[in-house]
Known about the structure:
Blueprint (H helix, E strand, L loop, with lengths): L3 E15 L2 E7 L9 H15 L3 E6 L4 H10 L5 H16 L8 E10 L2 E9 L1 E7 L5 E7 L7 E5 H6 L7 E4 L7 H9 L1 E3 L3 H18 L4 H20 L4 E2 H6 L9 H7 L7 E2 L3 H4 L4 E6 L2 E6 L7 E4 L4 E4 L4 H14 L1
Antiparallel strand pairs: 1-2, 1-4, 3-9, 3-10, 4-5, 5-8, 6-7, 8-9, 11-12, 13-14, 15-16
Helix pairs in contact: 2-3, 3-5, 6-7
Amino acid sequence: MSITVNQIVLHQLIKRIDGDDNKMESILRNELHPITAEVEQMMLQLHQGYQNKAKAFGVFQDNSVFAQQLNRLLEQETEFLDFSQYSTRLLADELSKYNFADSGTLVLCQYNFLATDYLFIALLDSRHSMWVDEHLDIRRTEYLDITQFDIAARVNLTDLQINAKSNRYLTFIKGRVGRKISDFFMDFLGAEEGLNPQLQNQCLLQAVSDYCEQGELNKEQAQAVKKQVFEYCKGQIAGGEDIALAELSDSLPTLNERSFVAFAEEQNYGLEEHIPPLRSALKSLTKFSGSGKGISLTFDAELLNTRVRWDPMTDTLSINGLPPNLKDQLEKALKAEN
């Protein structure tokens, strides 16, 4: 798969320190970059890198200055270059409020992927390295780090223009501890959190569990349904697709003359028609897992009360038939003690 780059420009943000004051200066390019093979390759790598990041969803606030300028761009009241320069100065003003903010190169790109138009914004760090020229002389060089970045957002322009009530047209990379995107990048965008994928996945799990319970399924039948849900979700993750609630419902048995999607709507779980799947949350459909105090444990849910038994009175697990590699380690440790 490839992307089609429509417009792209890079601007620089330079941190200036004057005593106790920090100021972020904008170094603006005066023309768009020509669309070359190198530009398309760079954007393809940035696109793929962004796809693999853990992201959150957002929406623009009513008073978002950035959104107002973006709307002017979409209405063709301003050019992409002017929009990019205004946005860069807006981000520079926001970053000047934070001592930890550092210099970087701001990438703004409008591109198309799978018939969907996107606006991509990322602040990239520069890296230093060495290279050898044609005379075998060693020289110092500087390059953009397009493989490791954590300050980026993307607007689904197609969704934004078609669905005014969408709560997922804006995505952004979740911030690291001590350097949260919400502290400056979301303020720069004038955005707030929209769809909550973690909550949606948790509500889906609860709905599946309740569906099995109210359908009066026994343990084996309920586990078979949960495994079916997990296999469907796993396939969606592998294909980079969302969980389609109606499609998932069609793959499940009808219980008490109600489909799963009808049950979910009646019980008002607040599930979206399309849910971004989170493997970490969905694995509890088929497995029990936990870690703490030096112990990490995971086992298939179907083994509970067969090979694995829990005594809540003594808070102990009994495992019948240890994995061979674990048993081998234990036997070696026992011999070493004796």
